[in-house]
Amino acid sequence: MPKTTNQRSLPLLPVAILCLAIGVAVGITTLKDSNLPTLKSPSSQTDTFRWAVNRAMSAAEITQIAKTKDEWLTIVDWWKESIRLMQSVAYTSEDRKVAQEKVKEYQQNLAYAQRKSQAKDPVTSATLHLWTRGSRKADVLRIQGKPTQSVRYDALCQEVLTYGNSTVELNNSIVVNFEDIDRNLKTAKESMPTTALADGLSWTLGSDKEDVFKVQGTPGRVERYDAPSKEILHYGNSTVQITDNRVTSYANFGGNLKVAVRPLPSEVLSDPNSQPNFWSLGADRNEIFRVQGTPTEVSLDGSSCREELRYGNSMVELQNGVVAGYDNSGGNLSVQVK
């Protein structure tokens, strides 16, 4: 697949936080077999300065839209890292003078973020501006933008998105690992929910388990499988599957689950009439949610890269997040075969 680049302009911030836009060297890396994200040490002073600017730019961008305490705590961490990297630029480096000026600027921005994170009544609902492990591919693309390169390995249910030298590994369109080598990935802390719905009245795929409890209440029964970090929450005849603390599937047989699966904001146009009211083979899962709404049941088979979305008696089959087949037995699917 040919490389493409995505450029975005940085608008003014509410506290006049400005960062230099430094071009990121395009590179392709391969993910290592690791359960933890990697933050490599800089191989040169050029890397140190560039990484500091990259991290600061992410902090500046999220500052414009941050609303939750978790977001502000993440911004605080990013400013601290930017300052630490700038301070480590060598005295002999041609970037030393600019780096020292940036340290002063970043310290002011850090102080602002710290004040926001310590507000008396910060918003505590889950954020939609950062992603982490368990997030869907559509979340990453919406937040991170178009990757430099995307490579799929359908036989392994995997896909690797490259952003400069940083990489994101997906399995069945779910983030399972990442390496933030260039400090340009807008990732949240592991414990931070990123896909909960803002209304606080419903939960969705990818929501944190605690969000399900807050909305749905205490389950009547819980089944735990320690090896795969999986839990099944039973609410009457309905079930919710939790994997690594996040919702991966559910079955609303009892009609009592307060679940809402919606297309992501970036996919919803201001004029709904400009989008077709049907989908076809090859459409992505977000398009199915836009046209069909919330499924009755969602099941995921990681070993076969297969996900099923059921709408009553009808079913849509996804392979690696893309429609590979369907069964319109219920006659309620808005599908057209091109």
- Structural class by helix and strand composition: alpha+beta
Arithmetic mean of pLDDT:
81
Relative strand content: 15-25%
The span between the termini is 24 Å
Low-confidence region ranges = 1-38, 266-271
Determine the CATH topology of the domain at 262-338.
Answer: Beta-lactamase Inhibitory Protein, Chain:B, domain 1
Name of the CATH first level of the domain at 262-338:
Alpha Beta
Q: What's the total number of strands?
A: 12
Number of helices: 6
Query: What is the CATH architecture descriptor of the domain at 262-338?
Result: 2-Layer Sandwich
* Biggest beta sheet summary: 8 strands, antiparallel
Q: State the helical fraction.
A: 10-25%
Outline the structure in words.
- There is one protein chain.
- The protein has 338 residues and is α+β, with helices and mostly antiparallel strands.
- The chain has 6 helices and 12 strands.
- The chain has helices at 45-63, 69-87, 96-117, 137-144, 209-216, 285-292, and strands at 149-153, 158-163, 166-171, 174-179, 221-225, 230-235, 238-243, 246-251, 297-301, 306-311, 314-319, 322-327.
- It has an 8-stranded antiparallel sheet with strand order 5-6-7-8-9-10-11-12, covered by helices on one side. A 4-stranded antiparallel sheet has the order 1-2-3-4, with no helix packed on it.
- It is globular, with a radius of gyration of 21 Å.
Structure keywords:
338 residues, alpha+beta, Beta-lactamase Inhibitory Protein, Chain:B, domain 1, eight-stranded antiparallel sheet, four-stranded antiparallel sheet, 25% helix, disordered N terminus
How are the secondary structure elements laid out?
Layout: H1 45-63, H2 69-87, H3 96-117, H4 137-144, E1 149-153, E2 158-163, E3 166-171, E4 174-179, H5 209-216, E5 221-225, E6 230-235, E7 238-243, E8 246-251, H6 285-292, E9 297-301, E10 306-311, E11 314-319, E12 322-327
Antiparallel strand pairs: 1-2, 2-3, 3-4, 5-6, 6-7, 7-8, 8-9, 9-10, 10-11, 11-12
Helix pairs in contact: 1-2, 2-3
